[in-house]
Queue: 2 jobs
Job 1
Amino acid sequence: MKAAIFKEVGQPLAVENVEDPTPEPGELVMKVGFCGICGTDLHATREGLTTACCGQILGHEYVGEIVEVGREADGNWQVGDRVCAMPFIACGNCLPCAAGRFFECESKKVSGVDDPGGFAEYVTTGSRETLLLPDNLELTTAALVEPLAVGIHAVRVANVKAGSRILIIGAGPIGLTTALWCNFFGAREVVVSELAETRAQLARQMGATAVIQPNIEKGAEDLLEQYIDIAGGPPDVIFECVGAPGLLQQCIEIAPYGSRIVPVGVCEQPDAIMPFFGLVKELNIQFAMAYTKDDFETCVAMLGEGRIDVSPMITDVVPLDELPEAFEALRTPSHQCKVLTSMP
Ligand SMILES: [Zn+2]
Ligand SMILES: [Zn+2]
């Protein structure tokens, strides 16, 4: 099969012919229809905590059709089923696995990390981690389930309530899906802070009730002033969806007494905070990572019923042969939000 391979840091991905995957017991093989490019994939090709191994196939936002059902597979999977899948294959026997919290499984294989990912014609998926798509759901739309699941998981652990006042820092794909779910679950104010005008526009389409242009020099104080002007009070929950040093401290300064900060952005550098400011306000800093099976199922169901719309986020679809170029282009910010790779 054809696949885009990560060679080494500083080199673009290379489309090459590699061996087709064969399923282990309990696994399925998916013919990939589309695979989204994620910030995590870009991180994996840079020097850092999450750098991929040379020769790895990246990509974890894949959807497609089952072409092979491995022996001992859970469920009634049939060749031809249209599916999406959580990008890991867990052991299925530990306590977290029993609760559908596969990401917590200590013996899981992760796509694009220690198992080949979806920038390829075929990928193996776990029979427990795979979800059937409703017939009416387009594959391109379903390719957004993974970033949607990151958003719903963050909103769930944040304990967003009907009537909550929300501030979201950053309108990248995760900031946008977080805004969508805050709106869906009845937040009163969903204010997104974003510098880039095209992203600000997208945030309005995806559920933000207002967008703030942060003033970099004036920092936290200005952001809070702008927020209160719009929302009439400070935020109950702040989602940090950028992952750049300095932002967590800014959130701590903005957050009112007893409120919650949810870091969702991936920051791989040391980042100084002044704990005292959090201490005196008894702040709750709740990190959010990945998703459970229920998060995935909810996203699939809500998309299938047409109760949420992610179409504004899909800005480009490129064939696998053009993936290396599109992938490099994403290193510089542009109008693009979610770029999907289509497989031959
Ligand atoms: Zn992703
Ligand atoms: Zn397990």
Note: Residues 105 and 165 are 34 Å apart (CA to CA).
Job 2
Amino acid sequence: MPEHCTNHPDRPSVITCFKMNFGYCQECLDTCEACTEPCGYCKTRSGCVIYELCRKSESVRLKREECED
Ligand SMILES: [Zn+2]
């Protein structure tokens, strides 16, 4: 598991994207910046904590709608 947030290298990671093996901090998780691929195929999606936590997020929902058009 990566020790630091991919977007914020000065912060410890609290969660890992198993597909990309990127770490993310709590803020990235809270703002749902943690899922790099809300649209494309992700083989870990069914067990992805990030995806589950962000399922109701407005920003992720909008991103998804954009790519489904
Ligand atoms: Zn971060």
Note: The CA atoms of residues 55 and 61 lie 7 Å apart.
